[in-house]
Amino acid sequence: QVQLVESGGGQVQAGGSLRLACVASGLTFSRSAMGWFRQAPGKEREFVATISWSGSRIYYAASVRGRFTISRDNAKSTVYLQMNSLKPEDTAVYYCAADLTAGDYYATSRREYDYWGQGTQVTVSS
Fold first, then answer.
1. Could you please report the per-residue DSSP string of 9-20?
2. How far apart are CA 82 and CA 73, in angstroms?
3. Can you tell me the mean pLDDT for 63-70?
4. Closest CA to 50 of 28, 76, 81, 20
5. How many other C-beta atoms lie within 10 A of the C-beta of residue 67?
6. Model pLDDT, residue 104
7. Cα–Cα dist 83/81, whole Å
8. pLDDT per residue over 3-15, tens digit each?
9. pLDDT tens for residues 76-100?
10. What are the CA-CA distances from residue 84 to residues 8, 37, 46, 72 (Å)?
11. Alpha helices in the chain (DSSP H)
12. What gap in Å lies between CA 19 and CA 53, rounded to an integer?
């Protein structure tokens, strides 16, 4: 049974930082591309960042590039999202996802992902 469990969400003031983590089990993590998505109230779930299984390929949404950093530790089956210079518009539920068929590449479309976590709330106040 595949499980993705996110943690690290919370409430922070604008300009602050948070680090999200997602621990995976039940899959071959070291051969899975991983991604972070977010969904704000009344909006569609949107892509944030993705990393290939080796970590050699990374891609960010334009809205977070330069502020967020995605990384992974295959030995711990964990993917991270370091979020700096947070803005109120970053407020959303953040989800991690696993793509088992990307090869050593990344995936930016939510349709490419096979499994999803339950999400963790991030709230940024002004």
1. -EEEETT--EEE
2. 14
3. 98
4. 81
5. 15
6. 86
7. 6
8. 999 999 999 999 9
9. 999 999 999 999 999 999 999 999 9
10. 13, 16, 19, 17
11. none
12. 20
Q: Tokens in use for 79?
A: 């993917």
| Token reading at 63 | 């809205």
Q: What are 21-35's pLDDT values in tens digits?
A: 999 999 999 999 999
Q: Which one-letter DSSP state was computed for residue 8?
A: -
List the beta strands (DSSP E) in 26-126. 33-39, 46-51, 58-60, 68-73, 78-83, 92-99, 115-116, 120-125
Task: Measure the CA–CA gap between 55 and 103, rounded to whole angstroms.
Answer: 12
Tokens of 81: 């999202």
Element (H, E) at 4: strand 3-7
Structure confidence at residue 102 (pLDDT):
87
The token duo for 12 is 């922070």
- Is the CB of residue 23 less than 8 Å from the CB of residue 5? yes
Q: Strand, coil or helix: what is 5?
A: strand
